[in-house]
Amino acid sequence: MPILRKVLPLERRKVLKKSIAPLTLRLLVTVPAFLVVFWVVDIVAQGNGASAIAMQQKQGQILIALILLLGGWALAPLIYEILYFANYHYDIDDKNLIIRKGVVVKREAVLPFSKITDVYVDQDGLDVAFAIYDVHISTPTAVSGEFAHIDGVGRKNAMILRDMILERINSEDGSERANAEKSKAS
Predict the structure, then answer these.
(1) 1 vs 163, which has greater pLDDT?
(2) Whether the model pTM is above 0.90
(3) Which of 8, 56, 161, 162 is the most exposed place for a label (fewest CB within 10 A)?
């Protein structure tokens, strides 16, 4: 059976949605920091009595170093989310929903259909803006609250995932009831 994520994929917009807030915050810090450092270097160079050409060369070198350093720091959330997206997997086997996530620390949840109590689809404010949905799976464990969700799927795929999981839950319940009835009859 193919991996469910390939059949019902995440939307690439999820990467932008997850990185836009930290990226914006870092840029709001980075640009003023860049200007302050550049201004301080200019003052120091002038105070040392450096020639105009030497000051321009020094400023050019510092400018390139700052762009590389601060640019890398500002883009780190986007790079992290691209890696997170690439390492995000979910699948279904006969009895379980399996979700694996993580870049540095990889985590996996195996959720037996017999333990799933609720499945729902929702959106937060940024999800609405990016037209993506989250499919949440509830079990009687604490892990399901923080980890058992598939986030960043399109509306159609979210509904298909929800219905697929609910169908598996209902078929699990039906087979458990049939087994219980057979046991009582024996």
Answers:
(1) 163
(2) no
(3) 56
